Amino acid sequence: MPEFLTRRQGFWHFVRRVPETFAALDRRGIVKRTTHIRIADDPRGVRAARAAAQMNGELEAYWQGLAGGQSAEAKARYEAARKRAWQLGFSYMPAAEVAAQPLAEILARIEALIVTPAWASACRSARTDFSSAFGERSRVAARLA
Description:
Helices cover 50% and strands 14% of the residues. It has 6 helices and 3 strands, in the order βββαααααα. The protein is globular and about 40 Å long.
């Protein structure tokens, strides 16, 4: 079975213990999230493994933010970016992972931001949109002209 995946009630679930180095900052002990992928649709867990890898990247970025002393800010940014990415039809991933994606994936993320101008006015800042589509800016320098 792929790393951090378990089967539960017909769906693949991401399950990971909080590492000891972050246990004092994240008191959940074990992080559990659904991948929203049915086992019947993905019996070998191939798609679920990709979703779990992305979730793991999200958690790692969150924990790094906590370790950097940005606990409240890190949590708020992480949750906002994750939620916005799902609203745009993407899974959240850190900027370094987005940069490693095929060009078509990167362009799809850019188009999602451009095609929804009504949403931009509803957002508090452009940073929220950018972070949800491309991860945190501090990891990869990006310049859009």
